[in-house]
Amino acid sequence: MKALLVDDHSLFREGLTMLMAQRFPAVELFDVGDLNDAEAVLGTEPGIELILLDLGLPDSQGLDSLQRLRSVVPEVPIVVMSADERPETILAAIDQGAAGFIPKTARIGAIESALRVVLDGGIFLPQGIYRSIAPPLADGPEVDEAQAALMQSLGLTPRQLDVLRLMALGQSNKQISRALSVAESTIKTHVAVVFRRLDVTSRSQVMVAAARMGLRFER
To answer: What is the pLDDT of residues 13-49, one digit of tens each?
Structure first.
């Protein structure tokens, strides 16, 4: 697998490159310090399957970087890695099509765990984002009834609700297929239905939408 790291901090690039080499030796990581160099690599190096993007670059700031790269390689998942972990920044990145968000302020073990999720095709979002956008959790048995009524209102079949639950936990189609013992092609069909019901266009948006609705799933 080939991945591209776009970050203007050389020490961070060196540290992440070392981590990837030690923990994920099957990943060939390219690293650059600005967006122009990133576009050059994408134009000359075929087969990039994942982009790790810092939002603060010398030649592009904020979500403009994400939009530019998505216009170049719309099919490649882009995971934002940023020290700005304000909920509004994370949600804006997801709304603009980011496939996940990893805080650069996290401990190295947490970054490794997050990378393991995204390299396996899953979606990673900081736990704090759920606390910031989810409705307050009520007490008592009425919680389960409210959850059941909410899920029923989505108009999904029990199997599609299973798929929604696992998507909301960040799992990839392959992982969901294994967990439910269902063909991956069938999972893709269920995912498309979930997208339509939640009015979203990406898996990361599913996670945010579920949290906003107050749906809570156990890992």
So the answer is: 999 999 999 999 999 999 999 999 999 999 999 899 9
Q: Which amino acid is at 137?
A: L
CATH (domain of 25)? 3.40.50.2300
Q: How many domains would you assign to the chain? A: 2
Two structure tokens written together for 97: 């099509």
